[in-house]
User: Fold these one by one.
Assistant:
Number 1:
Amino acid sequence: MWSRPALPVSILPVLLLLVLAALLQGCASRVVPGVPASTEQADAAWHAYRSWAQTNDADAGPFRVNASLRYKTGEHDGNRVVALLWSNGDVPLRLDIMAGIGATVARIREDDTTFLAYAPNENRAYYHSGDLNHGGRALLSFGVPVPFSVPDLANLLNGRFARVFDDARADARLVADGGIAYTLPRGRVRGMLELSPEGLPRHWTDTPPGEKQAGWDMRIDYDEAVPPLPRKITITHAKGYSAILLVKERERPQAFTGEQLGLELPEGTEVLPLREGARR
């Protein structure tokens, strides 16, 4: 007797997203923004999101991401660089920031406990042990205006949002096109996370609903892969900071060696402690 073959595990989250999109879009014309979502809607959207994120998490392995990075830390200054990020799927991670061919602005390595950044033009290295400002914001203090660690950025770019945002959520409210916004009440990264009608994270802000003082804001656009992965991440802050990461190429290479994931400082490099706001 013929039996239907089981669906590949990687396809199941995609089907969940499609079913959820059909359900939500069917009632989109009746959505009133800001109205509390029903328990069924809120749970279904969150389940689709977590299934997608966990599938990406299960697919963790050696990767290399080549992205363009445009950022500014003030009203007039702006920078356009290339960011090359790689690891074996977890810490340690390496990040090189380059202004052109052979012109390296910074070489960065981060693991669970330490952040090390070498600036060739200064012949200086900046070192920090522990969670800077209790939020993994060593990159921000080094001068890259993002409120995330290097591992956080890698997880976001690879769709592993469950490693960044806690599973606790509250106060689910409808968005005009059928998406749902949740308050994140706990965890290292709090605020508000908005899911698209398909259950994909598309907007995060660290400013809880109802508060007037604006802080960090992140918006995510996706590619056409199956399952989709973030293609563009736009981060802004009310003080004028901004960063746009646009993925140019993704690779799944062989495992990197310890030397490839290391960061050896040239002889004579001045090593300084990284302090909050040290290089902004």
Number 2:
Amino acid sequence: MTTLLVIAKEPRPGRVKTRLTPPFTPAQAAALAEASLADTLRTVAATPATRRVLVLDGAPGPWLPPGFDVVPQCPGGLDERLAAAFAGCDGPALLIGMDTPQVTPALLTVDFADCDAYFGPAEDGGFWALGLADPEPALLRGVPMSTPRTGAVQRARLVAAGLRVRDLPRLRDVDTAADAEAVAALAPHGRFAAGLHRLGVGAGR
């Protein structure tokens, strides 16, 4: 089976989901980030895996379910932090972020029998998932992060390395208020959708 990695920030006001402010306050944005992270971790916990690891910037809180190893993020840019997350794995690994609470166990159940990598593109041009049968940190180092070309550059890096790449469905990250409403509609029974509804957004507003 596969190691499942979640890279995340501790959901503290002013440190997470800053693009949600406005219309939300920093505290509200952090509450939504916590709900998104909780939904993501719950899905990972329900997915068959050899090991589940939270690669965390900050301290764990009550949103962390049992069954996860928690390791700190290394210093440096996001490419370095992602590379370090894979470097800590022994065997196949799939990494996701905390911004796609609509993710399901079916999406995260991967089989490397006939491919070397999984790539999950995001609608904003980045990627929401990256899986490697043989985790090689060099495949991530130097990839420009948080740009509209991040996903294309990362996927091209995999192909240039001679890897057989299987694409996962394109998902929408939660970055803006419009993203939040669209994603909540895709997973209406999760904590994220419930949190958004409490703020007056979504069904019944």
Number 3:
Amino acid sequence: MTRQLRIEPDGVAVDLADHDTILQAARRGGVALAYECGWGSCGACKVTLVDGQVDLMFPGAPAVNPRDARRNRILACQSRAISDVTIARGPGEWSAPAPRCIEQQAILFDVEDLAPEIRQFSFETSEPVAFRPGQYAILHLGDRLRRCYSICNLPGSRLLQFIAKRYEGGRGSNALAALAPGSRLSIEAPFGACTLRRQPGRKVFVAGGTGLAPILAMLREAAAARLDFEASVDVLYGASTPADLAAGDMLASAVARIPQARYLPVVEIAPAGWPHASGFVTDAITSTIAEPAAAEFYVAGPPVMVNAVKSLLRSADVPITQVHYDSFG
């Protein structure tokens, strides 16, 4: 059953399929509603529900609060329409058409173990997907079960690769881990605004856990395009132990092809003789990055890590315009 989404004050109307979120339908219709995380953590996609009814897919989303309910504010990324819906955006929330988001079928053709409970999943889509390195896709893993995963390969083919960790008790991660080669599912892409700015200048990339994926994609872009930022490029990758540095060799390979770039692995639990930094990535930033306010930062990983890095950069007077991040659970 098709319903209609109307966006005020612009009078834009787009169709809503049964499985669409407000955000997905708007983006598919070329309306660039503001958003960042895509899973209900940041609150950037909140809009006012003027008319109609929606179903909140993730009632426990961190960005949901009682004050929003009193003001009819909803999360566009987690709300599905159960009637025709009218929403109102705030001034300046969007001003230009968004890249077209496509949903299509894909087949899983390879699964590679990278670290304990961390795997790379390779899918072939029915048609090539246009995306920018650093963006992510939504995988449909079951009834009302959709999860966001960053794409780690480069665009230009029907290949989509994701690096994901299986968490004990995690419905989405367990559903993905249970897929065998030959499995088919729907994938929506692209989403996300944490993509590489190609202008010259110092760059610092900070990845935590499977936040490696978007960082790896952006570094592969820089290496493939033979970009020379005319300044230092530091790549920090943090994990619990050396064994958890999934695909660190892929990261190091991309870094080796970028002028003035260095790869800095960081582990919380360092074994005897570990030759690199130990502790948290915030410790490594403090000890290795001189004059952080002069650099542009790209940060990806779990919310706790991303928030800690953002807090550190804020205290170091790094302008918010120089911080690009992808925070996910």
